[in-house]
């Protein structure tokens, strides 16, 4: 599944996505009922990448969806929020400072991965005129956002040390506030 010609890592970290995160319809109680549902609900999220506008993407989705509905079917769309995409380039001084911090604490260079998410990163970078960098210290089997999510305490404590080291690294980097483009 997914975009042809792209790896899983590319699709999840650097490409736009449309994800079905919820779907309900019909009878779901105990026993069986042979009914045709009168309503259905679907929850979809879109993860944007740089140079995509949330307002334009919403309009494109609306204009794509409505003509698909058969005659007599009503569609209501509720929007719960929009967040603009953000990206701090890998060669930005702040990313280099974060990499040095992790290398000092862990004794080896970090594996840099673009990761999608939803949050105020774009607004923080724009309003503060500063780069946004995340120091992720989780492990692949930490089950991020799952009911059994965890973090290994050694990773947690090292992460705190790395954040402390990051402050020193940023203070020693003259062009740290260079705005990400």
From TrEMBL:
Which GO biological process annotations does it have? proteolysis
- What SUPFAM superfamilies does the record point to? Zn-dependent exopeptidases (SSF53187)
Q: Which Gene Ontology molecular function entries are recorded, alphabetically?
A: metal ion binding; peptidase activity
Q: What are the record keywords, sorted?
A: Hydrolase, Metal-binding, Protease
Q: Which InterPro entries match?
A: Cyt/Met_Dipeptidase (IPR051458), Peptidase_M20 (IPR002933)
Q: What is this protein called?
A: Unannotated protein
Please tell me the species this chain comes from: freshwater metagenome
């Amino acid at each position: 599944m997914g975009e042809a010609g792209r790896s899983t890592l590319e699709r999840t970290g650097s490409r736009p996505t449309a994800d079905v995160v919820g779907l309900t319809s019909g009878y779901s109680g105990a026993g069986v009922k042979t009914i045709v549902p009168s309503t259905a609900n679907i929850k979809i999220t879109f993860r944007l990448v740089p140079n995509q506008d949330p307002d334009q993407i919403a309009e494109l989705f609306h204009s794509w969806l409505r003509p698909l509905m058969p005659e007599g079917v009503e569609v209501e769309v509720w929007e719960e929020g929009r967040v603009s995409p953000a990206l701090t380039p890998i060669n930005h001084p702040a990313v280099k400072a974060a990499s040095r911090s992790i290398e000092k604490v862990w004794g080896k260079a970090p594996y840099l991965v673009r990761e999608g998410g939803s949050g105020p990163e774009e607004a923080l970078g724009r309003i503060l005129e500063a780069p946004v960098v995340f120091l992720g210290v989780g492990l692949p089997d930490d089950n991020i956002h799952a009911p059994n999510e965890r973090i290994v305490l050694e990773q947690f404590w090292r992460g705190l040390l790395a954040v402390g080291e990051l402050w020193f690294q940023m203070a020693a980097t003259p062009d740290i506030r260079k705005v990400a483009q």
